[in-house]
Amino acid sequence: MVAHAEIRVVHRGGSKINFREPVITNDSRFLLCASGESVKVYSSSSEECVHDLQGHTDLVSGIVRNPSNHLQVYSCSVDGTVRLWDFTDGILIKTFIIGYPIYSIYVSENHGAFSSI
């Protein structure tokens, strides 16, 4: 017998991890993938998800390594924010509020990322 009940969504999950191009760290130890509202950090040796970087409130649309620190990445989202992460520890360092949906991100190695903000 099937009991009918009201369906309630408590947390919205990820999406296809191939939605955006993944990022491989300089030392090839980690693979970072946009997955819904978060960035998943996978160990290339154990193939495990070691961190789930959560903080965005809408679809993560891009990930890029910080050229001035190999332990950090920037993520951008349709929620209008850019977030700087220490992906090895899974820590959010800083949030930049842009206020408009962001669909991709590029960081020049010749210029400090967000140094003027």
From TrEMBL:
Q: Where are the WD repeats?
A: 53-95
* Keywords noted in UniProt: Nucleus, Repeat, Ribosome biogenesis, rRNA processing, Transcription, WD repeat
Pfam families tied to this protein:
Beta-prop_WDR75_1st
InterPro entries xref list: WD40/YVTN_repeat-like_dom_sf (IPR015943), WD40_repeat_CS (IPR019775), WD40_repeat_dom_sf (IPR036322), WD40_rpt (IPR001680), WDR75 (IPR053826)
Report which superkingdom the organism of origin falls in.
Answer: Eukaryota
- Subcellular localization, as worded in the UniProt entry: Nucleus, Nucleolus
Quote the protein name from its UniProt record: WD repeat-containing protein 75
Q: Which organism is it from?
A: Salmo salar
